[in-house]
Amino acid sequence: MIKYKTRTPIILLDEFEKCDKSVQQVLGNLTDETLNKKFKDVFFDFPVPINEVIFFCTANYPEDIEPFLLSRLTRVKIEPLTFAERIEVAQGLIDYNFAKYEISHLKDNFDLELIKKCLCKEWGVRQLKSNIQRLAYEVFLLEGDNEVPEDWHDYEWPIVQEEELDFGDPKRNRPACPFATDKTQQHRKGCECFKPGLVPGWVENMGE
Question: With 90 as the cut, is the pLDDT of residue 177 above it?
Fold first, then answer.
């Protein structure tokens, strides 16, 4: 609030259900309408109008959030990106990375088929981002040595293929999904393994 000189900053608490229960109790004070209008910060020692702050909280396991705190939040379920949206993200990453290395004149070689090779079985796009960064850097090095391949599809790019699987979480007493260790097994109900059928357009375009 002081740095940006605004009474309505946006504060993101990422995966905040992983924090200790005592921390969640503190967050309770920040979200209590009877207390947060004049919340007293221990570092600045003066009242702060926390009630005007916009909090965004992300969580993978909402059941781990204290019930009293969860009741004060508006829950929004984020659906996985569609195949078309992933392609759009990829194209933006290509534009950014090729411009970064000053090789934008080569980006048209990065066609849809090559983008599909960079896609991974993941709910987000973290590995996709990493793959495009690797590929752009490889092109940058090849350009410097005047060795850019004519056929980009036959070249061995440093692309990493990973699959998001649910191996469980012993700290939260969550068992692993049987499919994570044995692909002949069925998925555990509610597991977090990547499922192609839940991403609109994936099966039709990726052939899975």
Answer: yes
By residue range, what is the domain housing residue 149? 83-206
Q: pLDDT tens, 97-132?
A: 999 999 999 999 999 999 999 999 999 999 999 999
Cβ–Cβ < 8 Å for 156, 114: no
Beta pairing class for 10-13 and 39-40: unpaired
One-character DSSP codes across 75-143: --PPPPPPHHHHHHHHHHHHHHHHHHTT-GGGGGGS-HHHHHHH--B-SSSHHHHHHHHHHHHHHHHHH
**pTM for the whole thing?**
0.80
Counted domains in the chain: 2
59 and 112 inside one domain: no
